[in-house]
Design goal:
Distance between the termini: 20 Å
Largest sheet: none
Shape: elongated
Number of helices: 12
Radius of gyration: 21 Å
Helix content: over 70%
Length: about 190
């Protein structure tokens, strides 16, 4: 009946797993799209453009990538708390921001692939009248389709599988992701319901 349905989704001892699944799916889709754009842009700049601080930037990103991301959890939480992104429905925005913000730093694999594309293709296109953006859009992106698929899968799975960052940011059960929902199933008040 309708009363049982309402009780199922308002009772705090019953997990609302469909909402957790929906939340995770939304976060993963947005993170996937943003990460593909970020990584493609940064990899193209690092592969094709030459500027003074290029090597320094790549070395700094490589060194920072050696530290585990869990070291930044406390700082990220307090930054999000100062921006009022840890309460209510804006938690989804906070998760999207956190997961997609650092993806541009994972450009090394994409850059390595772009380095294998001959620069003579870029030069030929520019001689024919293409701008740098047209070279990126009409030549580099079609050649990089396998790497775009790889980045899309990686960008989708990062928020789908993450537990620690989601546990820190999501304070209430209404904002939980799938990983937190699966963890919550092991708690003693929920075990009897499954």
């Amino acid at each position: 009946t309708f009363d049982n349905y309402v009780k199922l989704f308002t009772d705090t001892t019953v997990l609302n797993f469909p909402k957790m699944f929906t939340t995770t799916f939304i976060v993963a889709c947005f993170t996937c799209a943003i990460s593909v754009v970020f990584v493609l842009s940064v990899a193209f700049c690092m592969s094709r453009m030459r500027f003074r601080t290029r090597r320094t930037f790549m070395n700094i990103v490589l060194i920072l990538g050696m530290f585990p991301s869990i070291m930044a959890v406390t700082a990220i939480y307090f930054i999000l708390k100062a921006m009022n992104l840890t309460n209510g429905n804006v938690t989804i925005i906070a998760l999207i921001l956190v997961y997609s913000a650092g993806t541009g730093a994972g450009f090394y694999v994409m850059k390595g692939f772009m380095d294998t594309i001959p620069t003579s293709l870029d030069e030929a296109a520019m001689i024919d009248g293409c701008t740098r953006f047209q070279v990126f859009y009409k030549i580099i992106i079609p050649i990089c389709k396998p790497m775009i698929v790889y980045q899309a899968i990686t960008g989708f799975l990062i928020p789908w599988l993450d537990f620690v960052m989601a546990k820190v940011i999501c304070r209430t059960q209404s904002n939980y992701t799938v990983a937190l929902g699966l963890w919550l199933m092991l708690q003693k008040e929920y075990v009897q319901n499954f």
